[in-house]
Amino acid sequence: QVQLVESGGGLVQAGDSLRLSCAASGRTFSQYAIGWFRQAPGKEREFVAGISWSGGSTNYADAVKDRFTISRDNAKNTVFLQMKSLKPEDTAVYYCAANRNYPSTVAGAYDSWGQGTQVTVSS
Fold it and tell me: How far apart are the C-alpha atoms of 7 and 80, rounded to whole Å?
């Protein structure tokens, strides 16, 4: 398994941008697909974006498509989530997660999770 640590969250205004990072430990990081999920208070955890082990395949939730971009740098064991045109409804704790197969949209498919980073978007 890999250990994951998210960073980059914060308080921003609507329309602003943020870049989240997911740093991984372990020499096998490049073998893992990575997903970003988020959970708002009182709501279920939902898929945001995913990226294959090579970075050649990505997928996004409809709510963030065209606003968020996921990328990875396997040399630095890091996955990024670039978020632009943020909206108040993007407010949530954002988690990254890893699995050895593909960037599933289902949280249960992931083996390892980070502790999360808070993103708050004010109107």
Answer: 10
Distance CA 115, CA 95 (A): 7
- For residue 72, give the amino acid letter: R
Beta strands per DSSP E along the chain = 3-7, 10-13, 18-25, 33-39, 46-51, 58-60, 68-73, 78-83, 92-99, 112-113, 117-122
Across the chain, which distance is largest between two alpha carbons, in Å? 42
User: In terms of residues, how long is the chain?
Assistant: 123
Instruction: Report CA-CA distances (Å) from 45 to 41, 42, 56, 76.
Output: 10, 10, 25, 27
Residue-wise pLDDT tens digits, 3-53 = 999 999 999 999 999 999 999 997 788 899 999 999 999 999 999 999 999
What is the DSSP secondary structure assignment for residue 112, as one 8-state letter? E
Which residues are 101's β-sheet partners?
Answer: none
Q: d(Cα 117, Cα 83) in Å, to the nearest integer?
A: 14
Structure tokens at 114: 């980070």
Q: CA 121, 82, 18, 107 torsion: positive or negative?
A: positive
